[in-house]
Write a structure and sequence with these properties.
mainly alpha; 4 helices; extended
Length: 111
């Protein structure tokens, strides 16, 4: 496992460095839309747009459905290490192999 040598804090340090590198790289990008085609938008227009979207019952239904599905997915991700390691006695490496195999199987089944 990658985290065994650097600890869990080291993973976040690596993510911080990667994020800073990507942020620094993003400063090199310039606006591609010509100045004469740009337009400004007032906050009132943005809030009015949000309100009209949130009043759309079909949109709200899809968002709630997607949110519920994501909640189930995150519950699975959060509980699977405990179940496989504590209940079935897998090691951390064994769990990672089982989780990877399950992810590959889900990916293959989805195509």
């Amino acid at each position: 496992m990658y985290s065994s040598g650097i600890g869990w804090q080291g993973i976040f340090c690596i993510l911080l460095v990667l994020g800073l590198v990507l942020l620094a790289g993003s400063w090199h990008y310039r606006e591609t839309l010509p100045a004469e085609r740009r337009s400004s938008v007032a906050w009132h227009d943005i809030l009015h747009g949000f309100g009209s979207v949130l009043r759309n019952r079909r949109f709200v239904g899809y968002v709630l459905q997607f949110g519920f599905a994501q909640g189930v997915l995150f519950a699975y991700i959060a509980s699977s290490p405990f179940i496989t390691q504590e209940h079935y006695g897998f090691s951390a490496f064994g769990f990672s192999l089982c989780f990877a195999a399950n992810a590959v199987a889900i990916g293959v089944a989805a195509t």
